[in-house]
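Figure 3 (text version): structure tokens given as input.
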């Protein structure tokens, strides 16, 4: 199966390519299809955004398209930043600014109330408009300062449950094995392997 990744985020592309290595698929990116549109993420859920992107790119390329929408839900902030994770500090914000804003808002929150989870929804769309979605979650704690230089997004302040290191302090293999995207990708892998047997 040929699949186009419906993202221009380099770090995300690297991560998805790593996780899908060994799957019975050929991976393309939007660089291979420069005429495809930018898809606005204006949904109110991760699934809405992932499905919208996957359908648009499948229609544009005539191939299966894979899109994910993922983010951080902080319980003390009523689930924020949620679907706004990549734009939390504004449309032009980078990872550093988003982390600064989140840590600032979390300053008054006590150590035992800093629970959060990463959520990932992966949508696989066919050119005919068929959609299948896969979810992955990882619970954890928000730290008080960034630690580590790997990964992207909120990785430097997220301590996965029962770990004393942030995602940004872990090797790629360690993170992929437990991350929200890794878990959603495992569900995708099971689905694709079953499909190939049919």
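Below: residues designed for each position.
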């Amino acid at each position: 199966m040929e699949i186009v990744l419906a993202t221009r985020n380099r770090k995300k592309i690297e991560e998805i390519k790593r996780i899908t290595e060994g799957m019975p698929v050929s991976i393309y990116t939007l660089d291979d299809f420069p005429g495809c549109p930018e898809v606005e993420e204006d949904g109110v859920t991760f699934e809405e955004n992932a499905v919208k992107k996957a359908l648009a790119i499948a229609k544009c390329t005539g191939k299966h398209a894979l899109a994910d929408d993922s983010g951080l839900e902080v319980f003390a902030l009523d689930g924020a930043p949620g679907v706004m994770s990549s734009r939390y500090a504004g449309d032009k914000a980078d990872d550093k600014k988003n982390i600064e804003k989140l840590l600032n808002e979390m300053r008054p929150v006590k150590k035992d109330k800093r629970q959060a989870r990463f959520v990932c929804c992966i949508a696989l769309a066919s050119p005919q408009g068929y959609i299948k979605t896969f979810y992955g979650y990882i619970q954890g704690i928000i730290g008080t300062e960034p630690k580590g230089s790997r990964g992207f997004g909120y990785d430097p302040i997220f301590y996965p449950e029962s770990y004393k290191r942030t995602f940004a302090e872990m090797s790629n293999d360690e993170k992929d094995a437990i991350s929200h995207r890794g878990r959603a990708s495992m569900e995708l892998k099971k689905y694709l392997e079953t499909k190939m047997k049919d």
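The chain has a mean pLDDT of 92.
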